Amino acid sequence: MIIGGGGNTKRFIEELMGCRITVHGKTVGIIGPLDECYSAKEAIAMLASGASHGSVYRFLEREKQNILEQKFK
Q1: Is residue 1 scored above 70 in pLDDT?
Q2: How many whole angstroms separate alpha carbon 23 and alpha carbon 26?
Q3: Which domain does 62 fall in, by range?
Q4: Could you say which of 19, 31, 39, 56 would form a disulfide bridge with 63 (CB–CB 3.0 to 4.6 Å)?
Q5: C-beta of residue 44 within 8 angstroms of C-beta of residue 23
Q6: SS3 annotation, the chain
Q7: From residue 55, how far is each of 22, 25, 32 by CA, in Å?
Q8: How far apart are CA 65 and CA 3, in angstroms?
Protein backbone atom coordinates (compact mmCIF):
# COMPACT_ATOMS: atom_id res chain seq x y z
CA MET A 1 0.00 0.00 0.00
CA ILE A 2 1.51 3.32 -1.05
CA ILE A 3 -0.96 5.79 0.41
CA GLY A 4 -1.18 4.28 3.91
CA GLY A 5 -4.12 4.24 6.26
CA GLY A 6 -6.05 7.48 5.89
CA GLY A 7 -3.41 8.86 3.53
CA ASN A 8 -0.86 9.23 6.33
CA THR A 9 2.12 8.00 4.30
CA LYS A 10 1.24 10.18 1.31
CA ARG A 11 0.85 13.19 3.60
CA PHE A 12 4.16 12.41 5.37
CA ILE A 13 6.04 12.27 2.05
CA GLU A 14 4.37 15.47 0.82
CA GLU A 15 5.10 17.43 4.00
CA LEU A 16 8.68 16.24 4.46
CA MET A 17 9.71 16.57 0.82
CA GLY A 18 7.64 19.63 -0.07
CA CYS A 19 6.01 17.80 -3.00
CA ARG A 20 2.45 17.22 -4.11
CA ILE A 21 1.54 13.59 -4.84
CA THR A 22 -1.49 12.38 -6.74
CA VAL A 23 -2.54 8.78 -7.12
CA HIS A 24 -4.93 7.70 -9.85
CA GLY A 25 -5.28 3.94 -10.17
CA LYS A 26 -1.79 2.55 -10.73
CA THR A 27 -0.36 5.94 -11.72
CA VAL A 28 1.44 8.21 -9.26
CA GLY A 29 2.26 11.84 -10.08
CA ILE A 30 4.78 13.91 -8.12
CA ILE A 31 5.23 17.68 -8.47
CA GLY A 32 7.78 19.77 -6.60
CA PRO A 33 11.49 20.53 -6.31
CA LEU A 34 13.61 18.13 -8.38
CA ASP A 35 15.78 16.61 -5.63
CA GLU A 36 12.83 16.19 -3.28
CA CYS A 37 10.70 14.63 -6.03
CA TYR A 38 13.46 12.17 -6.83
CA SER A 39 13.59 11.10 -3.17
CA ALA A 40 9.79 10.83 -3.03
CA LYS A 41 9.87 8.67 -6.17
CA GLU A 42 12.46 6.37 -4.59
CA ALA A 43 10.35 6.10 -1.43
CA ILE A 44 7.23 5.21 -3.43
CA ALA A 45 9.21 2.59 -5.35
CA MET A 46 10.40 1.13 -2.03
CA LEU A 47 6.80 0.92 -0.79
CA ALA A 48 5.67 -0.69 -4.04
CA SER A 49 8.46 -3.27 -3.62
CA GLY A 50 7.20 -4.18 -0.15
CA ALA A 51 9.46 -2.14 2.15
CA SER A 52 8.04 -1.33 5.57
CA HIS A 53 6.66 2.15 6.10
CA GLY A 54 9.12 2.68 8.96
CA SER A 55 12.14 1.99 6.77
CA VAL A 56 10.77 4.32 4.10
CA TYR A 57 10.21 7.08 6.68
CA ARG A 58 13.81 6.72 7.87
CA PHE A 59 15.05 6.78 4.25
CA LEU A 60 13.12 10.00 3.60
CA GLU A 61 14.40 11.66 6.76
CA ARG A 62 18.01 10.86 5.76
CA GLU A 63 17.38 12.09 2.21
CA LYS A 64 15.88 15.36 3.45
CA GLN A 65 18.89 15.90 5.71
CA ASN A 66 21.26 15.24 2.79
CA ILE A 67 19.34 17.65 0.55
CA LEU A 68 19.46 20.38 3.19
CA GLU A 69 23.19 19.85 3.73
CA GLN A 70 23.83 20.14 -0.03
CA LYS A 71 21.80 23.36 -0.27
CA PHE A 72 23.76 25.01 2.53
CA LYS A 73 27.27 24.07 1.35
Answers
A1: no
A2: 7
A3: 5-71
A4: 39
A5: no
A6: CCCCHHHHHHHHHHHHHCCEEEEECCEEEEECCHHHHHHHHHHHHHHHCCCCHHHHHHHHHHHHHHHHHHHCC
A7: 22, 24, 23
A8: 23
Q: Is the pLDDT of residue 4 over 80?
A: no
List the beta bridge partners of residue 21. 30
Number of domains in the chain: 1
- CA 51 from centroid of its chain's CA atoms: 13
Q: What is the dihedral of CA 24, 27, 33, 36, to 10 degrees?
A: 110
Answer whether 54's CB lies under 8 Å from 64's CB: no
Query: Residue 65 maps to which CATH number?
Result: 3.30.1370.10
- AA letter at 48: A
